[in-house]
Amino acid sequence: MRAFDYVMTLNSFVYALGIAHILAAVGEIIRAGKRVRWSWLHAAWLLNALLLIVSWWLALWDLRDLKTWTMPTVLFFFLMACILYLEARLVSPPIAAEGPVDLEAFHRDEGRKYMGVYTAIVAQIILTVYLYGSATKYWVAENASNWPVLAAGLAATLSGRRWVQIAAVMVVMAVWIWYFATLQGALSDSP
After folding, report:
1. Among 13, 64, 127, 180, which one has the highest count of C-beta atoms within 10 angstroms of its own C-beta?
2. Total domain count for the chain?
3. Burial (CB count <10 Å: 0-12, 13-18, 19+), residue 34
């Protein structure tokens, strides 16, 4: 087993837990059905958290050729996995077995927390590109997409205004579409 495989095995468990949290929340929202007061703004941030975990996991494929994984490197990437899990946990609302489920209120009350963690993750991604980007083929080009979403996340976190949060999530979703359409290529073992 290569060092990359060893490190990614541990981190993949954490990514899987984050994805499981998001999917479980979506399942519970569907199960609650008519009791749910829907929030498309919250749904967009929930989708964003899922895309964030998947894109991070896909981007790490570019590190497969690193021959040495120092303890600071291993701990850094494990910390990122933990923060991604935290984002998934914060954006996933608790769904009670009975009574109304108000996702608008959940976003209003908890949104700044998960938008703030998202913003911190984007800042960490920018840092990661500067630390490890020279070892990858595409990271530096992909990093251009992080600056507008960093600004959007920061604006959404700091502003309590709904229109700012709507504009921010629209920027984030537009960048996701652009990112997956133009930058996220196929996984390949060839350099």
Report:
1. 64
2. 1
3. exposed
